[in-house]
Amino acid sequence: MLNGKRILLVISGGIAAYKTLELIRRLKEAGATVRCILTRNAEQFVTPLSVSTLSGERVFQDIFSLTDETEIGHITLARDCDLVVVAPATANILAKMAHGLADDLASTALLACDRPILVAPAMNTRMWHNAATQANIATLKARSIHFVGPETGFLAEGESGIGRLSETPDILAAVEHLLGTGPLSGVRALVTSGPTHEPIDPVRVIANRSSGKQGHAIAQALADLGAQVTLISGPVHQPDPTGCTIIKVETAVQMLAATQAALPVDVAIFAAAVADWRVEEPALSKRKKQENTPPPSIHLVPNPDILATISAGPNRPQLVIGFAAETENLLANAQGKLARKGCDMIVANDVSIASATFGGASNRVHLVTKTGIEDWPDLPKTEVAQRLSLKIADILAGRS
Q1: Of the listed 41, 130, 208, 333, which one is catalytic?
Q2: Positive or negative CA dihedral for 141, 78, 121, 174?
Q3: CATH, residue 310
Q4: Which domain holds residue 89?
């Protein structure tokens, strides 16, 4: 899928540098040409010989090598490629990139680069959360530098937290997305995520426990496979997925309007937990508790049914997928919802308190279609998103 693509891989000095050997192999298998810059600190973890052997190319290390500068030079290195990948991207090299430092071959090539840059951070959790690192990341994102990861997990220091280098398939997917070579390249996708908040007054709302983790993960997975993704999100505390158009809303009415405005698309995944009802006339000022006075009554009216509206609408996507979050009779309710809503698939999941699905990191889903039910095991929500995205790619390929 990367036939003819030229990748410049900058390997900086972190313990995760050893994982780049597998990344080089996978990039080569996908058809890419891979040139590598190895920083001096990276040489403490991987050898130039191993990198050269796997890439089949010379390894570039020293900015003051007259031979290198005569034959290729840091300017040519930075521009004779389709994409630059920095993996692992340490806090140090992120700081150099953010502040325009150029004190070695890697930082100089990055400063001279006019090609897309993808960074895969890896560092200790405290270094990642440090205000200086976060400021550098914000600066780089504002300059259109692309990020993949980091992930949460066990770190080299024996600690656990965010800072782990993304797995090789995730980095490869991000590369394919940026180069427009993924299986969903050219596909327009719409994802709704999170809860909706229906105002009672300017202070209080009717809401639910949806965190948006699954919907946001789906948007990211689709984008990683090359799709052009519009994510319509209710109020959440999740970071925005990279490579997506983000539209933030509060209420179900706003979500429906944003969804209709985003059409036409090829596939729509309605993962948001939309409130079924809203207050007919929210108070314009805060409702105050009064002594010896019963609580005020509120009159609820139904919210629009976004899934059913889009499934039956004139701009119906080729593939429409809904979610069924149930606390009992999961599969029966999901099958009933599939029939009522007119969509192509329902992703059913148990959201009872015992399941810990809301706000949790994992999910156990069942894919319900007119032809049957496909049961998936308990998986991290990111893996659920990746599997679902690959299935979407297969379905769309079969229909084209």
Answers
A1: 208
A2: positive
A3: 3.40.50.10300
A4: 6-178
